[in-house]
Amino acid sequence: FLFLAVLAVSMALGASTILADSYAMFVVPPWRAEVSLTFLLVLLAVAFVLTYIVVRSIYNIRHLPKSVAEFNRRRAVIRSADILQNAYRLVAEGRYGHALKVLESNFPGHSQAPMMALLGWRAAHALRDIDRTELWRNRSLMSGEDFKSACLITEAELALADRDYAHALASLQQQTATGRLQIVTLRLQLRAAQGLGHWAEVARLTRQLEKYRGMTAEQARPIRTRALLENLNDLQGDSQALKGFWEELDADERCFPALASSMATGLIKSGQHDEAQRVIEQALELSWDSKLIELYAECRGADATGRLS
User: Fold this and answer.
1) What's the rounded Cα separation, in Å, for the pair 199 and 193?
2) SS3 of 251, please?
3) CB atoms within 10 A of CB 180
4) 309: helix, coil or strand?
5) Which pTM value belongs to this model?
6) Residue pLDDT tens, the chain, 309 long
């Protein structure tokens, strides 16, 4: 550091000595001008700064229309985002009337018109305003292919809210035809199948949702049990169909007390006491159930002594 300090001081002194004794001469016959080198360097520095300012000013003036247009575009994007955020907040707060006022006054020419149309559709539906619901629905459907899935899912959700399960299922089938496997689609299909009483489809969708972690095992079990139970009830009186359905079930499903009870009841009614006894015994190995015990007593198969033990 000491060496560098000495070197810097020496260079400064040498430069001051050189500049003090140096000068520049400009000769244009018959004139001649002589100035100090220090003044010339200062003059060049000032000339460079002034030249830069002038050139930069000319460039900015020439590109002023483009700069103003870009500024206006950025301001419009920010304003559009603020309008969309405000509309979404109003819908989330349940202030559907206020949301529709914001959407209707800003929809024409808005850069996010498709998103505004979807929000308007939901808000109008929540108000049960049929005319405006249809208006915003048509605007949403005109948004293009990028928003097709969003429109189909929205239509299915609103149809389910109206308990129009057939319409909801038709929209979801169109969404499924796109080849996209989405958890939200499976959940909506499950609700539609439950509403229509398609219990075989309910059982299948429940398995899928559990497989893809769209539903926990605790959530899926009662829904799947009811679906399978409804299917068993529909097959009562047909022993062959009952046996075929029972064989297709997973081992853990056959041990559900409610399913085993329904299956055993059907087999007993059809005279298949030995089969009913086997079904009840398999279920009782995993869990005790009083209803199964009552049914077990009704079995009149050959192995009466075994039932007593």
Assistant:
1) 7
2) helix
3) 9
4) coil
5) 0.66
6) 888 888 877 776 666 666 666 777 888 888 888 877 777 778 888 999 999 999 999 988 888 888 888 877 788 778 888 888 999 999 999 999 999 999 988 888 777 888 999 999 999 999 999 999 999 999 998 888 888 889 999 999 999 999 999 999 999 988 888 777 788 999 999 999 999 988 888 988 998 898 888 888 888 888 888 888 888 887 777 777 777 787 777 777 777 788 888 888 887 877 777 787 888 887 777 777 777 787 777 777 645 545 444
